[in-house]
């Protein structure tokens, strides 16, 4: 009964396999550490921008799962490098014989599962981010004026810092500020007829103006910032309302943040894919090296030709037997025919 995916490993191929695994394991540890840093960076960015994401947006799941997966990959690489190096010396290999089994199980089930889950989350992130930013930025704009409402006191400062840092204005553009009241009623003069007219002309009683906060102003503009009456072509000399980008930030914050976070997630996704490939190669190589050395009593330069394999000899037949038994158990038993009535025996004539 032959093992599953068996491979003959003479002396020189065994040594080259151990040396190649040592190099691959260190490469896996390096990539795992870089993936760990990328995951942490994305998690920090999401924490800083959490105010502008919907509370129901589960975007933090990606970096959290990626942190766990990259930590397992880093551990697999470090242990794999030690085991492959020790396998070249018969005196140092025995302590590692009990480590390789749990390492292979943990790396395959734990690390592989986490990496696949993280890759799936990375692929689904763009749609989740789009929806979360759309809702979160809309809420942030609506809360901009509530500087004295408990729980919203920092909304104005955070949004101003966001627009200044990321060079953006509004959710999708500067005109988003025209549709909300971003000036607190505390700072409105109730005796000003213009204020009264604007409030009374609005169905919801809001004070709407065609202006933007100071944080929308582009400091690279050669002229002083224009924040009000942006829809009136005659309000400001030499200003064309059709080209406000010369004075204000051109892009909305939704587009800027989406591109920024998608770029970080794309980098993390590529790192996860490379980590998954390297971890697969390291685990496969360690399994072949482990089974080959077990056949030689843990001595890599032992006499004879060793055989490495993925699964032992009886696994295939065991699975086949279990499958067939399950099929037989699921197959309905044929209905038994009712026993035929025996014909009545004729009585013998009496003597």
TrEMBL record:
Biased composition (Basic and acidic residues): 342-351
Annotated stretches, region: Disordered: 327-351
GO cellular component: photoreceptor inner segment; photoreceptor outer segment membrane
One Pfam family hit: Tetraspanin
GO terms, molecular function: protein homodimerization activity
Keyword Transmembrane annotated: yes
Transmembrane segments: 21-44, 64-83, 103-125
Keyword terms: Membrane, Sensory transduction, Transmembrane, Transmembrane helix, Vision
Predominant cellular place of this UniProt entry's protein: membrane
Membrane topology per record: Multi-pass membrane protein
GO terms, biological process: camera-type eye photoreceptor cell differentiation; detection of light stimulus involved in visual perception; photoreceptor cell outer segment organization; protein heterooligomerization; protein homooligomerization; protein localization to photoreceptor outer segment; regulation of gene expression; retina vasculature development in camera-type eye
Residues in the signal sequence: none
Location of this chain's protein in the cell: Membrane; Photoreceptor inner segment
Similarity-based family: Belongs to the PRPH2/ROM1 family.
Protein name per the record: Retinal outer segment membrane protein 1
Originating organism: Balaenoptera musculus (Blue whale)
Gene transcribed to yield this protein: ROM1
């Amino acid at each position: 009964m032959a093992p599953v995916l068996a491979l003959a490993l003479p002396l020189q191929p065994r040594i080259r396999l151990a040396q190649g695994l040592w190099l691959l394991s260190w490469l896996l540890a390096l990539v795992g550490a870089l993936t760990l840093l990328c995951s942490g960076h994305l998690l920090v960015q999401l924490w800083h921008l959490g105010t502008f994401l919907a509370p129901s947006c589960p975007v933090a799941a990606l970096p959290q799962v990626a942190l766990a997966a990259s930590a397992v990959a880093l551990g697999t690489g470090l242990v794999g490098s030690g085991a492959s190096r020790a396998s070249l010396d018969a005196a140092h290999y025995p302590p590692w014989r009990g480590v390789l089994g749990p390492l292979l199980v943990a790396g395959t089930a734990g690390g592989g599962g986490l990496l696949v889950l993280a890759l799936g989350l990375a692929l689904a992130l763009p749609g989740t981010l789009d929806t979360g930013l759309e809702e979160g930025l809309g809420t942030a704009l609506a809360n901009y004026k509530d500087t004295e409402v408990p729980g919203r006191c920092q909304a104005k400062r955070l949004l101003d810092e966001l627009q200044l840092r990321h060079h953006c204005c509004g959710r999708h553009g500067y005109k988003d500020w025209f549709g909300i009241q971003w000036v607190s009623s505390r700072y409105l003069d109730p005796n000003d007829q213009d204020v009264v007219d604007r409030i009374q002309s609005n169905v919801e009683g809001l004070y709407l103006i065609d202006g933007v906060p100071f944080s929308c102003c582009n400091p690279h503009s050669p002229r002083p910032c224009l924040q009000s009456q942006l829809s009136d072509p005659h309000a400001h000399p030499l200003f064309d309302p059709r080209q406000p980008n010369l004075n204000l930030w051109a892009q909305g914050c939704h587009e800027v943040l989406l591109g920024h976070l998608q770029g970080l997630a794309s980098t993390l996704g590529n790192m996860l894919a490379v980590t998954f490939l390297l971890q697969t190669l390291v685990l496969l190589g360690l399994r072949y090296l482990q089974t080959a050395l077990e056949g030689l009593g843990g001595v890599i330069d032992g006499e004879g030709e060793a055989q490495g394999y993925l699964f032992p000899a009886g696994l295939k037949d065991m699975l086949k037997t279990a499958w067939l038994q399950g099929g037989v158990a699921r197959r309905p038993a044929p209905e038994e025919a009712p026993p035929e009535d025996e014909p009545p025996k004729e009585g013998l004539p009496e003597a």
